[in-house]
From TrEMBL:
This is Cell wall mannoprotein 1. Keywords: Cell wall, Lipid-binding, Secreted, Signal. The lineage of its organism: Eukaryota, Fungi, Dikarya, Ascomycota, Pezizomycotina. Residues 1-18 form the signal peptide. Gene3D superfamilies: 1.20.1280.140, 6.10.140.790. It comes from Talaromyces rugulosus (Penicillium rugulosum). GO terms for molecular function: lipid binding. Pfam families: HsbA. It comes from the Eukaryota. Residues 194-244 have a biased composition (Low complexity).
Length: 295
């Protein structure tokens, strides 16, 4: 009887040991936060890899694929910023464990930017230099936000180290911006410079001689002046020079039946003409009257 009872007891013990015991396991909050950081860095790295692959394959022409890849990097990076902003501050050990993922991402970006710079001549020839520069600037802005977010999520004692590591990402992108700066083919229109000088002088002095046998009142001569102006201008870009002075003018006045001469002077003198009468021979005049009556 005792033997039978012992066998039953042993059977119950064996059954109990064979039945698995359910144990509730909860993920560490810190581990979950660290996974979020690593996941974001990995996602950005994957988008950079795709970009670099297309950059290496680019041989000129359409840059749509390159610009689309760049846009994806910006989108993934900004999404990562939103994700990490809500995370708790990492412990010192977990923060230190981010060193390797950050360095890996930095190297990927450095490689992609270097390859992009190598394709500069083809991209500029396609007329997309300025577009690429603008796209890189957007990458830089997004990466700077991500770097700042990561730095804010590590203990203050490690913030300097985190900032230094994250700066490697933005520094790599900046090299690309510098390489493509000014490749948009923009032109500047220069101003115009010019000189125009013109002087006008008009002087008139003269005398009029009346025809024989006529009495002529003093003549007032109003000269007619004509002027021409010559302007010279040297322009850079676009512009025109217009003279503001009338030009060089000369004048002369001639009356029918008289002759006038003029000499130059610095100030136009008043023109006066006094007609001189020829003295009429009295005997000649009487003879002319007698001949008229004889007809």
């Amino acid at each position: 009887m005792k033997f039978t009872t012992s066998l039953v007891a042993l059977g119950l013990v064996a059954q109990t040991l064979a039945t698995p015991t359910l144990v509730e396991r909860k993920a560490s909050v810190v581990r979950r936060d660290l996974d979020a950081f690593e996941s974001v860095l990995s996602a950005v790295g994957d988008s950079v890899d795709s970009f670099d692959t297309d950059v290496k394959a680019y041989s000129g022409g359409d840059t749509t694929k390159l610009l689309s890849d760049s846009s994806d990097i910006i989108t993934v990076t900004n999404k990562g910023v939103s994700t990490l902003s809500s995370q708790d501050t990492l412990s010192q050990d977990d923060a230190l464990s981010l060193t390797s993922p950050v360095q890996t991402l930095t190297k990927k970006i450095e490689t992609a930017i270097s390859d992009l710079i190598d394709k500069k001549s083809d991209i500029v020839a396609a007329g997309k230099g300025a577009t690429v520069e603008s796209s890189l600037q957007e990458q830089y802005d997004a990466a700077k936000k991500l770097s700042g977010t990561i730095t804010d999520k590590v203990p203050s004692a490690l913030s300097g180290i985190a900032a230094s590591l994250a700066a490697g990402i933005t520094d790599a992108i900046q090299k690309g911006i510098d390489a493509y700066q000014g490749t948009g083919g923009s032109t500047t229109t220069g101003g115009s410079t010019g000189t125009a000088t013109a002087t006008a002088t008009a002087t008139d002095t003269g005398s009029a001689t009346s025809a024989p046998g006529s009495t002529t009142a003093p003549v007032t001569d109003t000269p007619t002046a004509t002027a021409t102006a010559t302007a010279t201008a040297t322009a850079t870009g676009s512009g025109s020079a217009v003279p503001t002075n009338p030009g060089t003018a000369t004048s002369s006045g001639v009356l029918p039946g008289s002759s006038a001469t003029g000499t130059g002077g610095s100030v136009p003198p008043a023109f006066t003409n006094a007609a001189s009468l020829n003295t009429i021979n009295t005997a000649g005049a009487l003879a002319a009257v007698a001949a008229l009556f004889a007809l």
